[in-house]
Every structure is written in C-alpha cells, then in structure tokens.
Amino acid sequence: MPPPQPTAATSLTQRLSKIVVSLQFVWFLGHVTTVFQTFMYLFYSRFAKSGASSYSKAYYGTMLSFCIILYKAHGVPQFSRAYLQRILMDENTQYLLLSLIWLTSGPIWVTLIPFCTFSFFHALTYTREQILPNLFPAPGAATPGTFSFARAVSNRIGQFMTTYQTPALYFVAYTEVYIIFPYVVLSILFGRASILTPLLYGHFLRFRHFFSPMTKEAFRDARTRFDGWILGNASVPAFVKSGYTRVRDLIEKYGNVEGEMMRPQQQQGQQPAAQQ
Known about the structure:
79% helix, single chain, 276 residues, 0% strand, mainly alpha
C-alpha cells in the first residue's frame, strides 16, 4: 500500500520532522551524497590534489544506503548460519562489499558510474514520493497554484523515470561488463589496482549474472560479438580460436551459478534410484 498522503491538519514543521527523523531519510541522504560527490569527483576533484576525498565520500554515501537497505530487510546482524546465508545471497550485500573494495583501492573513476546511476533514480523516487508531498500537500494545506506546480514536477519525474530507468539499468549492466572489468585489468599495469581486484570483481559479476537478466544479456551480447570477431574471422589463426574457446568455456562454467545450485538437488534425487 502507498504511504498516506500529508493532510492539511499537519504543519510544514510537523511534516518535515516526520520524514527527517526516519531511517529512510538517512538512506536518501546517502544516495544524494553519492550523486553529488560523484559529480564533484568526475568533473572537478579528479583533477585536484584532494580528488580522493570526493571519491571516498561518494562510496561512504553508497555504503550508508546499502547498510540501511540490508538492516531493513534482514534486521539486526546475527551470528548465525541462517542469517549469514540469507544476507550473503542478497545482491545488496554484493554491492556493499564491492563498494568497500573500490573504497579501499586506488580511485578508479568508472566504478562510480553504476552506483551513481542507482542513487540518482533512488533519490528521484524518494523526492517524488516523500519530499514533494510533504513540502506541497494537497489543497487546503497549500495554495492551489503551489500544489499544481508540485504535481507537475512530480508528473515530470514520473515520466522521466518511466522513460529512462530501464535503459539506465541496461546501461549499468553493459558498463559493468564492457567497461569496468577491462579498465580494472588495465589498472593493474598502472599500479592503481592489485592483482586480486579483477578476481574479486569477476566473482561479483558471477553473482550479477545469476541475479540480473540485464547482466545475462550483456554477457550474451559480449559472447556474440567476440565469437564473431574471433571464431567468425577466417584470418584468425586456429590456435587463437582454440585458446579463445577454452577461455570462454571456462568463464561460462565459472559463471554458471544456477547449475551449481541445482547440482546438489539433482544428486539427492538420484541417490534413492541408485540405492534401489
């Protein structure tokens, strides 16, 4: 059910204090921090001596938001096997751990793009559903003209999200596969990332492949393109094609999380038959 809309019976101070003291507002501030500090880093701080500060603050905001999401979804952390299994299978945990990796690594600017995109749309959603209704409630608590303006802004935000949110999620998926992973590998050569970073990021992509249909599509697109460039090119030597095929198959086997999860169930189903 949608949250109850503010009424004329409450004052502006009461309406704002109600949302400001909520955990959801802290979540919103985390997203705003990520968006603001990302833009500061990409267009200003990256070229200044203090650039790492904006980079770190962007990830502080990201980690704050994801911690709140996980707290609201799973409650107070518990030292139990069931809790650990539940929280580790949450894709928000994967993004939280990834943001910690990027935070503790040297600044890699492309890694901010997915987090900034997510935060931008989350901040828009909260602005539309909470900020605007509480600043400009229904007629009776505000002037008709002011309410009409707020409703127009809300409608514009809604139209923008309907039009661009899904393409933005595809953009993030393709960025994670096509841009960030190669960039991280190249960063090793320049001393901006350790040799473990691509391995950890590859493990993250493995989970994204399991959870996200958009990431699956990005990997399918990558395979189609590389198959065409290498296997479909007559000028490529046979040993290169053979090596590419082996590497591709190993990557696909590693990324087959669904198959690994189904294997124990299949083995359990086969055991009674073997015993008969």
